[in-house]
Specification:
Distance between the termini of chain B: 9 Å
Order of helices and strands of chain B: EHEHEHEHEH
Structural class of chain A: alpha+beta
CATH architecture of the largest domain in chain A: 2-Layer Sandwich
Number of domains of chain B: 1
Oligomer: heterodimer
Number of strands of chain B: 5
Strand content of chain A: 25-35%
Number of strands of chain A: 17
Helix content of chain B: 40-55%
Structural class of chain B: alpha/beta
CATH class of the largest domain in chain A: Alpha Beta
Number of domains of chain A: 4
Radius of gyration of chain A: 41 Å
CATH superfamily of chain B: Response regulator
Largest interface: A-B, 28 and 28 residues
Strand order of the largest sheet of chain A: 2-1-5-4-3
Helix content of chain A: 40-55%
Largest sheet of chain A: 5 strands, antiparallel
Strand order of the largest sheet of chain B: 2-1-3-4-5
Shape of chain B: globular
Number of helices of chain B: 5
CATH topology of the largest domain in chain A: Heat Shock Protein 90
CATH architecture of chain B: 3-Layer(aba) Sandwich
Largest sheet of chain B: 5 strands, parallel
Number of helices of chain A: 15
Radius of gyration of chain B: 13 Å
Distance between the termini of chain A: 106 Å
Chain lengths: 497, 128
């Protein structure tokens, strides 16, 4: 042996076996104990001692669990008996009294004759991990949504508690069986999209409850795990929005009834005006006859004639408004409708000094609409826009018709740079027989437009600045239109049957 | 009729109704001014000081309600009697106008189609 610079003798160089024997036990980053068949702890590393305290002369169950008797189903005894290594999930008490969760690997130490003399226990603290796991489980089970994890065949491999409470076990079945009572995957399935592109998708789906009622879900799908074939598992989160839908429908119905009431009031108003006009005409004819004033008689007769014509127009338009036509939905190209209307009216508008343009997003897919109905709406709005633009004091009237689509919402806009609408009458324009055109209008145009839009499940709104112009916007929802179209087909088929 | 130079301002946006009221009042010896909306009604009232106003409620640009409140709250013009002549048969309108704390109630309220004799009787009662 060489002496070092201080002249003292270096200790003899140890072999790998010796090093392992001395160091390994201490260096491993988890608790190690060796126990004998009587479950006495005969060796332990300092990692263990730091966690569980003094072990000398104590049984393993005393140290690990603070128990007086051996644990039931003690895995160490099993290993002593059968010589097999095993893994056990354990809950124990640390020296500071804290409950901790750990995973213990048990390995037999057998002599050459095959007798298990000792068992080595390697224990890893998983308290943090299991806390996260518990939190995750609570979150997964208790969120107020149905959660399923599905594989590429749409087979359910995991469900949350809310799902199981409502639909039963789920696991092994298919999502479309549970949500929709279907025997095959749904059209426009958001999970299929997520499997295809790995992105998150959201869709509004109509399902069927176990009781056979209609249920509405907003379904969000996201990729969960990826493999060689791409996304292997998708998590589907379905929020039941049936109550919200019901409220929405009730609101629509209430609005419809309110509109009926306002319609009747508006009709009475218009008729009263007509009656007053007729009465004025009669007065003129009457007094003209008495005074033998032919000019007065003639003026009175004109008034009678005009109010008669107005009455005829009102009755005709009212009948068309009141007919309660069910929209007949066929796929309509929004841009095409706007172009057709433009081509029909552009020349007349130009002659009056109003420029008409169309600005439609390219690539809006056709959507199910009643072609006559939607054309009537847009023509009404256009006609109003042109009238408003004509009232500009400085000329240069313009009307733009637009079509846009975003997130399944298709909007039509008619914007004019006309006189605008005074704030105090804004709220009336859709709900009453409202006209500012004197004898030129019946006040039914916007009422009819709103009615048709509502029949399509859509909304109409208006923004206006007096002196600068107005924009009317019709918003239609692809999902609702598709549903209406499906119902229409069902009704038609039903009638055939 | 002995009402001399009394002037009535007729406020309405319907040509036929204006013609009717104009003839009716002129036939009964009144002078008639016409305004087609609330804003014009206010302007003409300030300029010409009519003896009485008949006012429609639903009109474009400025409604009759605003003109009514402006005129009734004006210390110089508030005394001019206003008869509401409207086809808007909604009783809420009357309630609205007569219960507003901000303006006194109208001198009369007539629904279209009007009772001619009743209207003339009211006008005569108010301005002779």
């Amino acid at each position: 042996m060489a002496a070092n610079e201080h002249g003292t003798r270096a200790p003899p160089r140890e072999t790998l076996d010796e090093l392992l024997q001395r160091e390994l036990f201490e260096r491993l980053p988890f608790s190690l104990t060796v126990i004998d068949p009587e479950l006495n702890v005969v060796r332990a590393n300092s990692h263990f001692e730091a966690y569980f305290g003094d072990w000398r002369g104590r049984k393993c169950y005393q140290v690990y669990r603070d128990r007086r008797d051996v644990c039931s189903a003690c895995p160490a005894l099993l290993t002593f008996r059968d010589g097999h290594a095993r893994v056990a999930d354990e809950t124990g008490r640390e020296r500071d009294g804290r409950i901790s969760h750990y995973v213990t690997h048990l390995a037999p130490l057998a002599d050459r004759a095959g007798n298990v003399r000792y068992v080595v226990q390697m224990t890893r603290d998983v308290t943090e991990t299991s806390r996260f796991q518990r939190e995750h489980d609570i979150l997964f089970d208790r969120v107020p949504c149905y959660i399923t994890v599905i594989n590429r065949n749409f087979r359910i491999i995991r469900t949350n508690e809310k799902f199981r409470d409502t639909f039963g076990r789920g696991r092994g079945g298919f999502c479309y069986q549970y949500y929709k009572r279907r025997a095959e995957p749904c059209e426009r399935c958001p999970a299929a999209l997520t499997f295809a592109d790995g992105a998150e998708h959201v869709a509004e789906m109509v399902g069927v409850t176990t009781g056979g009622d209609e249920a509405w879900y907003v379904v969000t799908t996201a990729p969960l795990s990826r493999g060689r074939r791409g996304v292997e598992h998708v998590i589907e989160i379905a929020a039941d929005v049936t109550d919200v839908k019901k409220l929405e429908n009730e609101k629509l119905e209430a609005e419809r009834l309110a509109a009926v009431g306002q319609t009747v009031a508006g009709l009475a108003h218009t008729i009263k005006n007509l009656l007053m006009g007729l009465e004025g005409g009669m007065y003129m004819v009457d007094t003209g006859l008495k005074r033998d004033d032919r000019g007065r008689i003639s003026r009175g007769w004109d008034v009678l004639q005009r109010n008669f014509d107005k009455t005829t127009m009102l009755v005709r338009e009212f009948l068309s408004f009141a007919k309660g036509r069910v929209p007949e939905l066929t796929p309509v190209d929004p841009a095409r409708v706007l172009r057709d209307i433009h081509d029909f009216y552009a020349d007349t508008a130009r002659e009056q000094g109003v420029e008409l343009t169309v600005d439609a997003d390219p690539g809006i897919e056709p959507l199910p609409l009643d072609p006559d109905g939607i054309e009537a709406c847009l023509t009404n709005l256009l006609s109003n826009g042109i009238d408003a633009a004509l009232l500009r004091e400085r000329g240069g009237g313009k009307v733009v018709m637009r079509a846009r689509e975003q997130d399944g919402e298709v909007s039509f806009e008619v914007e004019d740079n006309g006189v605008g609408i005074a704030p105090e009458i804004k709220h009336k324009i859709f709900t009453t027989f409202f006209t500012t055109k004197g004898g030129g209008g019946t006040g039914l145009g916007l009422l009819t437009t709103r009615k048709i839009v509502q029949e399509h499940g859509g909304e109409i709104e208006m923004e206006s600045t007096p002196g600068e112009g107005s924009t009317f916007r019709i918003t239609l929802y692809r999902s609702r239109l598709n549903k209406l179209a499906r119902e229409e087909v069902r009704d038609r088929d039903g009638r055939k049957g | 009729m002995g009402n001399g130079n009394k002037t009535i301002l007729v406020v309405d946006d319907e040509q036929d109704i204006v013609d009717y009221l104009r003839s009716l009042f002129e036939d009964n010896g009144y002078e008639v001014l016409v305004a087609w909306d609330g804003a014009e009604a206010e302007r003409l009232t300030r300029e010409r000081r009519p003896d009485l106003i008949t006012l429609d409620i639903t009109m474009p640009k400025e409604s009759g309600v605003k003109a009514y409140k402006d005129l009734k709250r004006d210390p110089e013009l508030g005394a001019i009697p206003i008869l509401i002549v409207t086809g808007y048969g909604d009783p809420q309108l009357e309630t609205f106008i007569s219960t507003r704390r901000t303006a006194p109630p109208p001198e009369g309220y007539f629904e279209k189609p009007i009772d001619r004799d009743e209207l003339l009787a009211k006008v005569s009662e108010l301005i002779g």
